Amino acid sequence: MVLKKIPFRKSLKALTLLLTSMLIATASAAVYYSITMEPKVTTTALFVKFVSAGDTPGGSTVNDAWCRLLLKSYPNATLTYEQAVNISNTDSGAHSVRLRHINISPSSGSSDVGNFTRIKFYLLNENGVEQTTFEYTTTGNSWNTPATTSYYSIPGNTKWIIKAETLSPAGASIGIECNIQIAVDVQE
Description:
mainly beta
């Protein structure tokens, strides 16, 4: 019996082409290149920062990027700090800020939460006009934390005011502390 050479050659060619294309596809998939990024980070002064104000409580710490306000709360009486701390924009251009809740302790579920009724912060412009509020209230032993505010534009070379109000119920225990962390987000 005589084998035909023509179909064998076509099959061999097809197999060779198939293997060659697979090799090329595999090699192509492994080709890549790199690009380079070289950031340069420079320390600089803050444009928007905290500054002590007329009613910043004694013993408070006020730094450019961080402040700790030692506020009080009286049973059955609203205590108001008209100028608890300032937010100063030292740049010639406007920058926007917002208030955002981070943390509060004692946490909800603790009986100590019931020693507070309200802790409210007001963002006032340079003329004392209210821009927004940021209020913590309680329901029993649970906190009702505020939603993040919108952004508000502080014009260049101005100081805005953070006003604070505190209130505790008539039967509040003396000496109970509440620690709040609030972020003041700044858009450059």
